[in-house]
Write a structure and sequence with these properties.
The chain is an alpha/beta fold. The protein has helices spanning 3-10, 103-107, 138-146, 173-176, 193-201, 207-225, 230-253, 282-298, 329-333, 339-364, 426-436; strands spanning 18-21, 24-27, 54-59, 71-72, 79-80, 94-98, 155-158, 166-167, 170-171, 304-308, 377-382, 398-401, 412-415.
């Protein structure tokens, strides 16, 4: 060991120190009790030594069967109603929130498509079929602010494809997307597990081809810019901006900037690449997509994810569930209080909740030093409506899970129903969640208030 290295070691062990000898260097394990130091020996802040906070939103369509969606108590004694019962083993990891809503959804006369795409933005949904417009969603704001730290700014996933047909005079793109990159453009949703796997675990072989294609596209677009009208130039600039975001993603994917401090618990995929086709079995499809969220978080390929378990006005058939007689999800939720249909609606609620429970169970088992992946995450399970049969938008079912790296106290119920309307904005929750992700905004959507008592 040379004199400089002796000096370095005398100042204290680096968390990612190296043992040199016999012609080889072996990385020591990451040691949380030793100070974080740069190569110069200078002590760094401890922030880089802690696992990052991840955020994910799981959406299910058309609300809940209201008589069975309730919770009471707290901690280990919290009791969940039949609709939420699959989450009972995780009660101490939850915050059950009742009474939040998006005011612009309540005001929108379109009972479905005017009340769904603004789930994560609180924005007004345009009813002009020639002007598709919502609002940029909180997950995409997070992706812009913290996404530069990972290969993928965010993962936008789903089970059912984007639909382009019209429903009540509005584009079903509204019912197919909860993540919006801008006011007028939804983020690209991936429903093929194999493609999502390639985004997460790509070995870099395709980046050179991606770069050559982008270079050619950019050259053509720049040459075209001086030949089009002012209006078309604005559209072209928006297109170029989206291309530049792809360039940044390619560049990030080729870099690994973590030299010391926290390291992902997984560096290579621990699952095989899924088959190229979409699984025809809905439960298998959902579990694969959720496994990919876990993989992306565990490998630190992204820290933001959204997943639509089904679209609004869903055509998903739940005949695979025991006791459900092959009805489409939409028919079960619009049940007119028919007892038989209500019972089947409850089973679909329980099925969706069990997917969230599966995600929590998986993340709780992943060790990240003195905490788990679940403890270092903020997960939100929600729908845009409460009573789906009544299209009730003034009360959203929301369940939070995880502790956000210690920033969220769990095992409790937060009832907002008795609060004034201005203190029941869903965007207040989103501001509070973004705070915990390190993104502090003075205002988001329809409010500048944080959610009290969160």
């Amino acid at each position: 060991m040379n004199k400089n290295k002796q000096s370095h070691w005398s100042e204290g062990l680096s968390r990612r120190g190296f043992l040199a000898g016999a012609g080889a260097s072996l990385a020591l394990p990451w040691l949380s009790s030793t100070p974080l130091r740069a190569e110069s020996g200078k002590k760094l802040t401890s922030d880089g030594s802690r696992p990052p906070v991840r955020f994910a939103c799981l959406y299910f369509s058309n609300g809940v069967e209201p008589a069975h969606w309730w919770a009471k108590g707290s901690g280990a004694t919290m009791e969940l109603g039949p609709g939420m019962r699959p989450l009972q083993p995780h009660s101490q990891d939850l915050v059950i929130i009742d009474g939040l809503f998006n005011a612009q959804s309540v005001a929108n006369p379109s009972a479905h498509l005017g009340r769904m795409p603004n789930l994560l933005s609180g924005a007004w949904v345009s009813l002009d079929q020639n002007d598709i417009r919502v609002g940029r969603t909180m997950d995409q704001i997070l992706a812009q602010q913290v996404g530069s730290q990972t290969a993928l700014p965010s993962l936008v996933l789903g089970i059912e494809p984007n639909e382009l047909r019209l429903e009540d005079g509005l584009s079903m793109i509204y019912g197919s997307c909860i993540s919006w990159a801008s006011d007028t453009k939804p983020a690209t949703k991936e429903i093929y597990p194999a493609r999502a796997f390639d985004l997460i675990a790509g070995d870099g072989k395709s980046r050179e081809l991606d770069r050559s294609i982008l270079d050619a596209v950019l050259a053509d677009a720049r040459a075209l810019r001086n030949q089009v009208s002012k209006t078309d130039r604005v559209k072209l600039d928006e297109y170029l901006e989206s291309i530049r975001s792809i360039e940044k993603r390619i560049d990030r994917a080729g870099k690994e900037e973590r030299l010391e401090g926290w390291q992902p618990s997984l560096t290579k995929p621990d699952m095989t690449r899924p088959g190229s086709d979409i699984p025809q079995n809905v439960p298998d499809h959902m579990r694969l997509i959720l496994d990919l969220i876990v993989l992306a978080f565990q490998m630190d390929k992204t820290r933001i994810a959204t997943c639509m378990l089904n679209n609004d006005l869903s055509q998903m058939n739940f005949g695979f569930l025991e006791g459900v007689k092959g009805s489409l999800h939409l028919d079960l939720t619009h049940n007119g209080r028919d007892p038989e249909l209500e019972a089947m609606y409850l089973r679909t609620n329980q099925f969706h909740v069990s997917q969230f429970a599966y995600l929590l169970d998986r993340m709780k088992k992943i060790d990240e030093g003195d905490s788990t992946l679940l403890e270092n995450s903020l997960l939100m399970f929600c729908s845009n409506l409460f009573d789906g049969d009544k299209h009730q938008a003034d009360r959203m079912p929301i369940v939070l899970a995880g502790q956000g790296g210690g920033s969220l106290k769990t095992g409790r119920i937060l009832n907002c129903l008795e609060r004034e309307a201005d203190d029941r904005r869903a965007c207040s929750l989103y501001l509070s969640l973004m705070d915990r992700m390190g993104v502090e905004l003075p205002r988001f959507g329809d409010t500048n208030r944080r959610l009290t008592d969160l």
